[in-house]
Fold SDR family oxidoreductase.
Amino acid sequence: MNPTALITGASSGLGYEFAKLYAANGYNLIITARNEEKLQLLKEELTHIDVTVIPKDLSQPGASKELYQQVMDKKLPVTALVNNAGFGLNGNFDELSLQEQQDMLQVNITALTELTHYFLPSLKKAANQGLSAGILNVASTAAFQPGPKMAVYYASKSYVLSFSEALAEELKDTNVHVTTLCPGATGTNFFKTAKAENAKLAASTMSPQAVAKAGFEGYQKKHRVIVPGRMNRVGALAAKFVPRSVAARIAQNMNGANS
């Protein structure tokens, strides 16, 4: 029986690349995102494995439970959970829509936490049966410092990293491994969605193919934290030693517009 990966945010960007990588390595897929048309197109690309499409808007309260229930109703055994769905917003906290920021927290934190809780028993069961089972959570290099002009986004990714590292330690004796991918700026629709196309941070990006490959390979090797790209790794390390106020000023400069 092929392993099965559930991938959120699979219609584009990193999720799309993860889907292709997991499929190429023999995984059947459950793919979810808001855009059903794009999910169906992805399914048509991946004809050599079983692909189940479940459209879902994870910014809506209760969507995670609905997704879990639909997977259970279809009796699909999940052995890999890829919590990839997420988005950011650029601008001063008090000038951004509160509802949009709440939606961001719902996707980046609440849905990720809920799906992890719902599917963890299935992952433990798979691991007990000798199958490779694990969770790949997508955070960001934003997780390592505060980020003015993207304050809620940076804070949400700090949560993902902290939660994932703690969970990895809790599960170390269960054979369910937890990997956190912390990419820097990546050439996806992220900056367009965040209304940050002109931010200095967007001037230099890694390809989504390279980032997803680093994440998938790190997941396969059961690494706990993956930071793709040499400069991203240097920045993540430096953030541990630079005063938080200085790190915040640097992040604010990078999140600001190019002059």
Remarks:
- The mean pLDDT is 96.
